[in-house]
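Supplementary Methods, section 5.1.

A reviewer requested that the exact input to the structure prediction be made available. We therefore reproduce it here, unchanged from the version used in the analyses.
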Amino acid sequence: MPETLEAADVATSDIELLDRTAIAVRAAGSALRERFGEVVRHQTREELMRALAANDDTALDILRPRLTRLRPHAGWVEDELVGGALPPGEWWVVDPAEGNINHLHALPEWAVTATLVRDNRPVLTAVHLPMTGETYTALTGAGAHLDGRPLDVAPTTDLGLSIVATSQARPGEEDEVVRRVGSSITAMLSDALVVRTAVPATLHLLHVAVGRIDAFWQFAGARADLLSGALLVTEAGGRISDAEGRPWTPHSESFLACAPGIHSQAVATLTR
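The structure derived from this sequence is encoded token-by-token as follows.
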């Protein structure tokens, strides 16, 4: 029987709130996993968009009431393509099916994410990977965890021995951004050990937080696919900046997350 939240169950602390958020993303992930299976080839972009929206709606039907009950006065953001700063106050930034296109193609790399942002700073996040059963969580000042186990980024100090990753430009992206993506991959192919290119961004950032890969970068990223991973990496001891090494904000035109020991090397490569 699905878990429900009674009115008296409203979280009174960020720690409890994070626990409840993790329950919500796991429930939404279970519903999406029931829809996972055979590849369905869509003949038009309109058909594809309807299928993506159906997955989003399945997860949102679970996430929205649960998270709204936890924080009734918080705003709500579910458009994964939107960037920039949010108005003051609390906001739920949700990606109901991060890696949705992978789900539709029967690829296992997809997740459900929910992040609470308070005055434009991510406070807590929960990311659930239904195909592995893993749940990643982070709370500002309390560390990052994988199913309760503390996370630490890799102790890497040599970019030449590093696995790095990026995601491709979004469909319809500006030509300049597409060129920057291509040139950055070329530069990393020369300087890093292995370069991985795939979507979604959040899964790469999970790998940085747990120490499986050493760096992730992206250009023109949106809030939903970076905020959760940024908090996880930061709380796991990683370094967050833009590609030029400046402090990252939702207004930034680029994003870099990596092990501190290779940050300056990664910046040098991306700005070459």
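The helical segments are 14-34, 45-70, 100-104, 175-191, 201-210, 227-235, 263-270. These observations are discussed further in the main text.
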